[in-house]
């Protein structure tokens, strides 16, 4: 009889350990990875072409390409605020600096794709000063219409990182 009780006890203990392990894995496995709290915050405003409103779908796709590329560019140091979080603010007439202040962003990315010229412009402003930090004009590859060029994304991430480093080291601008 003692052997049956010991076996039953061992089975109950093993079952409890398995339940605790499963619940712990479920709880802790669903937590996001640790992210530094001092990441630079970049708000991306929707790309536009005021002269060609009929390409609004293209501009939404281009904006999303930059959101995805910049989100993946430097996850440790850069947090991206999507245009869906700021769309109403822009429609309400707030300036990029006002939008950045409301979203507590450090930088704002503005984009414009000019369909007539087939060129795209991106500009990054440092806020609250609205100082120009980065700007670049580039042509999109017609075989890949709505994408974020790797070299432009990398240059934006480096410019933001350099600005943050300069500010942390000396409180000034790069």
Uncertain stretches: 29-36
Largest sheet: 5 strands, mixed
Gyration radius over CA = 24 Å
Strand order of the largest sheet: 2-1-3-4-5
Q: Average the pLDDT over all residues and give the rounded result.
A: 81
Helix count, DSSP H or I runs of 4 or more residues: 5
E-strand count: 5
What level of helicity do the residues show? 40-55%
Give the overall silhouette.
elongated
Q: Can you describe this structure in just a few lines?
A:
With 174 residues, the chain is α/β, with parallel strands linked by helices. The protein has helices at 2-29, 56-73, 87-91, 96-103, 150-170, and strands spanning 40-44, 78-81, 107-114, 119-126, 131-139.
For the structure shown, list the relevant keywords.
174 residues, alpha/beta, 5-stranded mixed β-sheet, 5 helices
Give a written overview of the molecule.
With 174 residues, the protein is an alpha/beta fold. Helix content is 46%, strand content 20%. It has a five-stranded mixed sheet, with helices on both faces. A hairpin with a 4-residue loop joins strand 4 and strand 5. Helix 2 packs across helix 5. The protein is elongated and about 85 Å long. About 5% of the residues have low confidence.
């Amino acid at each position: 009889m003692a052997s049956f009780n010991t076996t039953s006890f061992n089975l109950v203990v093993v079952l409890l350990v398995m339940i605790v392990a499963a619940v712990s894995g479920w709880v802790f496995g669903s937590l996001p990875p640790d992210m530094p709290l001092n990441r630079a915050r970049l708000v991306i405003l929707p790309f536009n072409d005021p002269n060609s409103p009929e390409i609004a779908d293209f501009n939404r796709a281009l904006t999303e390409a930059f959101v995805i590329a910049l989100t993946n560019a430097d996850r440790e140091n850069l947090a991206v605020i999507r245009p869906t979080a700021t769309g109403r603010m822009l429609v309400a007439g707030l300036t990029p600096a006002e939008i950045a202040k409301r979203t507590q962003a450090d930088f704002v990315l503005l984009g414009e794709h000019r369909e007539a010229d087939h060129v795209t412009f991106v500009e990054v402003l440092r806020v609250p000063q609205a100082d120009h930090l980065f700007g670049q004009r580039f042509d999109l590859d017609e075989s890949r219409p709505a994408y974020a060029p790797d070299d432009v994304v990398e240059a934006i991430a480096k410019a933001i990182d350099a600005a943050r480093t300069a500010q942390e080291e000396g409180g000034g601008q790069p």
